[in-house]
Specification:
The complex is a heterodimer.
Chain A lengths: L3 E4 L2 E4 L5 E7 L5 E8 L3 E10 L2 E4 L7 E2 L9 E3 L8 E8 L9 E2 L3 E5 L1
Chain B lengths: L2 E5 L2 E5 L4 E8 L5 E7 L5 E6 L5 E4 L2 E6 L4 E6 L8 E9 L4 E4 L3 E6 L1
Parallel strand pairs in B: 2-11
Antiparallel strand pairs in B: 1-3, 3-8, 4-5, 4-9, 6-7, 7-8, 9-10, 9-11
The chains are: A mainly beta, B mainly beta.
């Protein structure tokens, strides 16, 4: 089944404890992206990647890191999480940048930073 | 500043009603506009519109884009309780590497 998977789905952590949220897609998509969703603010793009080893900042990159060493994986790293990073996070992928096609979203990761 | 604004914020209707959801945008170098449905989980894709005036239709749902006036509408006819969800509008800008989402319209359909 074609899908985007994320792990973990739920995470409660404490301020300053490094964490990684994994994202993987099995559709051979070139483009991958991370969003956070907050009430009243909608979905905001954190980082995106147009292909392996090519990443760029979205609208709200502060406090986050990403890497794209393989085409299928795009982990989101919070080196020192803070309470304002408590949010619902979605990973998404798209076939390629140049074509007109939609993004497919993962199931979401609900992160709470105490 | 690029932005996408959806209205209304929320809507409560009875089954069988017809609803119209609005999305206006100001995005540099518009490329496409997408509608998603979100039911307490990941957004699922509904439509993508790239050309003005073309209506996309799928069953009871339809959408049209007006690139001159910078807005889109999503129509749902003969609403059902299963249509209850948050409907998101997203606009793709620049070279396709960034998406801007509205805050969504929460639709509740009462039996």
């Amino acid at each position: 089944e074609a899908q985007v998977t994320q792990n973990p789905r739920y995470l409660i952590t404490v301020t300053g404890k490094k964490l990684t949220v994994t994202c993987s897609q099995n559709m051979n998509h070139e483009y991958m992206s991370w969003y956070r969703q907050d009430p009243g603010l909608g979905l905001r793009q954190i980082y995106y990647s147009m292909n392996v080893e090519v990443t760029d900042k979205g609208d709200v990159p502060e406090g986050y890191k990403v890497s794209r060493k393989e085409k299928r994986n795009f982990p989101l790293i919070l080196e020192s999480p803070s309470p304002n990073q408590t949010s619902l996070y979605f990973c998404a992928s798209r076939l390629r940048l140049s074509s007109y096609n939609e993004q497919f979203f993962g199931p979401g990761t609900r992160l709470t930073v105490l | 500043e690029d932005k996408v604004v959806q209205s209304p914020l929320s809507l409560v209707v009875h089954e069988g009603d017809t609803v119209t959801l609005n999305c206006s945008y100001e995005v540099t170098n518009f490329r496409s506009l997408l509608w998603y449905k979100q039911e307490k989980k990941a957004p699922t894709f509904l439509f993508m519109l790239t050309s003005s005036g073309i209506e996309k239709k799928s069953g009871r749902l339809s959408s049209i884009l007006d690139k001159k006036e910078l807005f889109s509408i999503l129509n749902i006819t003969a609403t059902q309780t299963g249509d209850s969800a948050v409907y998101l509008c997203a606009v793709e800008g620049n070279t396709g590497n960034q998406f801007y989402f509205g805050t969504g319209t929460s639709l509740t359909v009462i039996p």
